Backbone:
């Protein structure tokens, strides 16, 4: 589903820099950023947090039947990553073969092209993860 | 939740067959299911006071929104008020629940609830995109995650943590295809083997094509009245003993334990409390098997077995017709089909047929109490209904 420029523009920080939020009241981290901490609600104090990008694979799959715009990447690895701060993200895992990935594998974030929008010609970027160096 | 002001009963059911209905549009299916439900109930259209219809993504599947009024219009029920409910694949279970609340509260005496989805008027990739709207679009779908991918992540973790095997996943599909052989509403009447599942193409590892529910068209409707008036219309009313619902994060990755659907756990607890029964008192269940792993996870979260034991449960035949707790005698989403907006109402139709003793070759002998469990997205919405043929 194609979206106008504003949608992509307002997500730059979060998707380019892996920026989420932290609640200073309870210490929980969130990605994507949340304004309301679901644990503390009105008592919560959330502020922006840039994740280190280091983490471990929590679960993974290989997407072989790709959605619109991702066909040229298929098959690609998607994983839930446990970030070292405690939050999780879901992301593609690159620079390795599917048979090299396993639960618990250390990974780090990297900056990559996500896909191209056909009609507008926008090239969308964001984080992916790769095996930790 | 408080006790209802009065109990609610089902006096009529109607369903289209599920499948690729190239000759039927959304309106045709709504009309067919609605008409069948009204005929089955023996009630007259003028007695209907409210219509509640679920559809997940009619806007993306056929470009049609405003399906509340569309339901009323094509069932011939104008000018009665109509409401559309949407909760992804749980849309029509939410319709059922809103209808239950409308009668339990005393506001209405006769309500038609149901759901419909027309999924085959778009190409497969467009359907995939529409369905992806049930997950967190900005933080999951944006990066290329698909629904089979979501359930594959759950499956991988469940296998890692509990030792659930690839064969056990396949056994869910084999059982549900076998049950669907006896269901005239079912999309598939094809027997499959574990080997067929294991040799079908990978969609999102470890899930294969025969682990996935199909794209389908279909509609289903149910007529609700107060329990005190049910006998006036029907010799075989079915009573709603519980109607419960819970929510969870849209995104799977945000949950502490991705092998548990907390919304199912919560909705199930509430439902057993409302119905004042234990899971062991159930004679059958329709469970949300959009992918084989989800029947296993859901059987655990509905307390049919202890956590982690869902794979063993299917392997030991406990969920077969004739087993300890038959699960998805209809064939389930896997083999009966999964026209998303109709699925929840379709589960209710199956349980009512079972409790009436009308389920033919897939009849669970002597069934008195059944549970329907319907999930939206990756478990962001869960709805549970418990139905019984006994008023008390």
Residues:
């Amino acid at each position: 589903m194609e979206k106008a420029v504003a949608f992509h523009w307002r997500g730059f920080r979060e998707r380019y820099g892996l920026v989420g939020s932290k609640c200073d009241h309870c210490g929980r981290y969130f990605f994507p950023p949340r304004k309301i901490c679901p644990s503390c609600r009105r008592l919560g104090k959330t502020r922006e947090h840039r994740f280190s990008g280091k983490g471990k694979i929590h679960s993974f799959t290989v997407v072989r039947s790709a959605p619109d715009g991702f066909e040229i990447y298929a098959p690609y690895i998607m994983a839930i990553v446990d970030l070292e701060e405690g939050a999780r993200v879901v992301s593609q895992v690159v620079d390795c073969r599917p048979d090299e990935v396993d639960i618990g594998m250390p990974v780090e974030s990297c900056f990559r092209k996500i896909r191209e929008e056909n009609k507008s010609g926008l090239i969308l970027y964001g984080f992916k993860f790769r095996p930790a160096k | 939740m408080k006790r209802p002001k009065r109990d609610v009963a089902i006096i009529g059911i109607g369903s289209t067959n599920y499948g690729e209905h190239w000759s039927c549009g959304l309106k045709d299916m709504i009309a067919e299911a609605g008409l069948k439900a009204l005929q089955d109930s023996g009630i007259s259209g003028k007695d209907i006071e409210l219509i509640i219809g679920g559809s997940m993504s009619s806007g993306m599947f056929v470009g049609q929104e405003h399906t509340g009024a569309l339901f009323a219009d094509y069932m011939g029920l104008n000018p009665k008020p109509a409401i559309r409910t949407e909760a992804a694949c749980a849309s029509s279970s939410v319709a059922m629940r809103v209808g239950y609340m409308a009668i339990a509260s005393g506001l209405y005496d006769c309500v038609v609830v149901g759901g419909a989805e027309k999924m085959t008027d778009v190409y497969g990739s467009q359907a995939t995109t529409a369905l992806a709207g049930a997950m967190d679009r900005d933080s999951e779908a944006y990066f290329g995650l698909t629904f089979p991918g979501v359930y594959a992540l759950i499956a991988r973790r469940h296998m890692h943590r509990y030792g659930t095997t690839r064969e056990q996943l396949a056994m869910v599909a084999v059982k549900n295809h076998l049950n669907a052989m006896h269901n005239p509403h079912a999309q598939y009447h094809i027997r499959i083997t574990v080997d067929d599942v294991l040799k079908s193409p990978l969609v999102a590892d470890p899930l294969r094509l025969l682990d996935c529910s199909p794209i389908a068209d279909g509609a289903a409707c149910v007529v609700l009245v107060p329990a005190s008036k049910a006998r006036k219309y029907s010799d075989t009313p079915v009573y709603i003993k519980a109607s419960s619902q819970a929510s969870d994060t849209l995104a799977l990755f945000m949950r502490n334990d991705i092998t548990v659907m907390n919304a199912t756990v919560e909705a199930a607890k509430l439902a057993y409390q409302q119905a004042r029964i234990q899971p062991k008192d159930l004679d059958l269940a329709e469970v949300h098997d959009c992918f084989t792993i989800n029947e296993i996870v859901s059987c655990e979260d509905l307390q049919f077995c202890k956590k982690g034991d869902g794979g063993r449960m299917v392997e030991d035949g406990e969920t077969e017709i004739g087993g300890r707790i038959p699960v998805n005698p209809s064939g389930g989403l896997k083999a009966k089909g999964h026209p998303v907006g109709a699925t929840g109402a379709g589960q209710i139709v199956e349980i009512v047929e079972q409790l009436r003793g009308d389920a033919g070759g897939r009849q669970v002998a002597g069934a008195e109490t059944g549970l329907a469990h319907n999930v939206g997205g990756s478990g962001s919405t869960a709805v549970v209904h418990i139905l019984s043929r006994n008023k008390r």
Chain B touches chain A through 35 residues (CB under 8 Å).
